[in-house]
């Protein structure tokens, strides 16, 4: 019997196909005791399995590239964490087998993460995936992961580990649905980068039977269970009409009355450039540089290596705009040579710009590398700092840029409510603002972006978040400076119109979302976008804000 379930749509498009479940059952080895003389052998087995899993994660990252590479290399570091391995060795020394020692050590670390605040609790799914991979290797059983299938299917899972999401084959995986996760989780971001329709935070998703036909709408968040043949055909026709409309829309981002809103791409490195160019990106609005630093957690990459990577991205957009975010380390992106290991709550500790100001030599090296990479190129280079809290932060970053001889615009990311509320002050030191709506929502509502149960508070349609966007955009307008959005909010076509109405001057997103946003903007005038923004801010909640904006723009 046909019924409709609703989760959170995180990646555009419609997928229709049979359900296949992810093999993510927890592997719990038996609690057997080993003779003391076997301990050295078991410790060697544990180390070999850990190293093999870390190497596999890095290899998957190299194949996937970009955003996925950074996520998977962070998981590899998690697998080889020295404290975890020391705990494994201790447990083996007192009689545990290698597989049981790994299982118990990870369980203890998992409990610490789960109790260390919501931000770190969001890393639990990644940790569980690493544990399962190591234990599976030790037991000699198949790795958890994507099911084998010769026919295309819709993938269902409680949650998707980055290692699995990164290498999904779009020719087989039509779309995916998860019970956990949020709109800004790793899996959601990677799904948008791939262009695979996806819905997250759908309660009861894993209870759907294997082989059941579902229709997944990654825009609305609806999952239609057991749709009729006639309904399936209607959805296919509508999706094809949508694709045709997107293909017919080209050129720069602008409203129907000609108000320009440059549409830029979020990239993690050179591997993301083909998709950005194919989808008509007008430049790069967020170049995440941390992927380069995750190759070796023990030391920063050399300046020459950085120059090579940066120049490839800059060369892809001659005379275009490329906005580079300097290293954003800390919290869920720890680096052994930079971030402290004993912070009680890293999400509220030394991360982002704070880390770089504590290690000025790392910041100087990166800024010098950017200056060298831009030499002789007509590109419009802009460099911004993550996690700017106030004017003092902004001044310190601008001073560092000038001291490094960087000929570029200096900017600040608005990811902390204080930065939005005091944007006028910050703009006394920098030349532009860029709103990271993912972290801004997280810190505004004290709601970890990885926790599916908090999806309501992570929703970028929340009027309180729109108020902060409006405050930052108005401050930039008054100062005659730009204010873009580089968070995932920009990838929602309807919300992109609202952001434009709030005064945002550019939108940056995963490349696959650009045609959708371009088409939506071209449908409405700037005045309509402004009225939709006013209606959304006047609402009491996220769902009401979306409905109010839709009503204004549809003329209902």
Automatic annotation (TrEMBL):
<keyword id="KW-0479">Metal-binding</keyword>
<dbReference type="InterPro" id="IPR006318">
    <property type="entry name" value="PTS_EI-like"/>
</dbReference>
<dbReference type="Pfam" id="PF00391">
    <property type="entry name" value="PEP-utilizers"/>
</dbReference>
<dbReference type="Pfam" id="PF05524">
    <property type="entry name" value="PEP-utilisers_N"/>
</dbReference>
<dbReference type="InterPro" id="IPR015813">
    <property type="entry name" value="Pyrv/PenolPyrv_kinase-like_dom"/>
</dbReference>
<dbReference type="GO" id="GO:0008965">
    <property type="term" value="F:phosphoenolpyruvate-protein phosphotransferase activity"/>
</dbReference>
<comment type="function">
    <text>General (non sugar-specific) component of the phosphoenolpyruvate-dependent sugar phosphotransferase system (sugar PTS). This major carbohydrate active-transport system catalyzes the phosphorylation of incoming sugar substrates concomitantly with their translocation across the cell membrane. Enzyme I transfers the phosphoryl group from phosphoenolpyruvate (PEP) to the phosphoryl carrier protein (HPr).</text>
</comment>
<dbReference type="InterPro" id="IPR036618">
    <property type="entry name" value="PtsI_HPr-bd_sf"/>
</dbReference>
<dbReference type="InterPro" id="IPR023151">
    <property type="entry name" value="PEP_util_CS"/>
</dbReference>
<dbReference type="InterPro" id="IPR008731">
    <property type="entry name" value="PTS_EIN"/>
</dbReference>
<dbReference type="InterPro" id="IPR018274">
    <property type="entry name" value="PEP_util_AS"/>
</dbReference>
<dbReference type="Pfam" id="PF02896">
    <property type="entry name" value="PEP-utilizers_C"/>
</dbReference>
<keyword id="KW-0762">Sugar transport</keyword>
<feature type="binding site">
    <location>
        <position position="415"/>
    </location>
    <ligand>
        <name>Mg(2+)</name>
    </ligand>
</feature>
<dbReference type="InterPro" id="IPR040442">
    <property type="entry name" value="Pyrv_kinase-like_dom_sf"/>
</dbReference>
<keyword id="KW-0460">Magnesium</keyword>
<feature type="binding site">
    <location>
        <position position="288"/>
    </location>
    <ligand>
        <name>phosphoenolpyruvate</name>
    </ligand>
</feature>
<feature type="domain" description="PEP-utilising enzyme mobile">
    <location>
        <begin position="151"/>
        <end position="221"/>
    </location>
</feature>
<dbReference type="InterPro" id="IPR036637">
    <property type="entry name" value="Phosphohistidine_dom_sf"/>
</dbReference>
<keyword id="KW-0418">Kinase</keyword>
<keyword id="KW-0963">Cytoplasm</keyword>
<keyword id="KW-0813">Transport</keyword>
<feature type="binding site">
    <location>
        <position position="325"/>
    </location>
    <ligand>
        <name>phosphoenolpyruvate</name>
    </ligand>
</feature>
<keyword id="KW-0598">Phosphotransferase system</keyword>
<dbReference type="GO" id="GO:0016301">
    <property type="term" value="F:kinase activity"/>
</dbReference>
<comment type="similarity">
    <text>Belongs to the PEP-utilizing enzyme family.</text>
</comment>
<feature type="domain" description="PEP-utilising enzyme C-terminal">
    <location>
        <begin position="252"/>
        <end position="523"/>
    </location>
</feature>
<feature type="binding site">
    <location>
        <position position="449"/>
    </location>
    <ligand>
        <name>phosphoenolpyruvate</name>
    </ligand>
</feature>
<feature type="binding site">
    <location>
        <begin position="438"/>
        <end position="439"/>
    </location>
    <ligand>
        <name>phosphoenolpyruvate</name>
    </ligand>
</feature>
<dbReference type="GO" id="GO:0009401">
    <property type="term" value="P:phosphoenolpyruvate-dependent sugar phosphotransferase system"/>
</dbReference>
<dbReference type="InterPro" id="IPR050499">
    <property type="entry name" value="PEP-utilizing_PTS_enzyme"/>
</dbReference>
<dbReference type="InterPro" id="IPR000121">
    <property type="entry name" value="PEP_util_C"/>
</dbReference>
<feature type="active site" description="Proton donor">
    <location>
        <position position="486"/>
    </location>
</feature>
<dbReference type="InterPro" id="IPR024692">
    <property type="entry name" value="PTS_EI"/>
</dbReference>
<dbReference type="GO" id="GO:0005737">
    <property type="term" value="C:cytoplasm"/>
</dbReference>
<feature type="active site" description="Tele-phosphohistidine intermediate">
    <location>
        <position position="186"/>
    </location>
</feature>
<dbReference type="InterPro" id="IPR008279">
    <property type="entry name" value="PEP-util_enz_mobile_dom"/>
</dbReference>
<feature type="domain" description="Phosphotransferase system enzyme I N-terminal">
    <location>
        <begin position="6"/>
        <end position="123"/>
    </location>
</feature>
<feature type="binding site">
    <location>
        <position position="439"/>
    </location>
    <ligand>
        <name>Mg(2+)</name>
    </ligand>
</feature>
<dbReference type="GO" id="GO:0046872">
    <property type="term" value="F:metal ion binding"/>
</dbReference>
<protein>
    <recommendedName>
        <fullName>Phosphoenolpyruvate-protein phosphotransferase</fullName>
        <ecNumber>2.7.3.9</ecNumber>
    </recommendedName>
</protein>
<keyword id="KW-0808">Transferase</keyword>
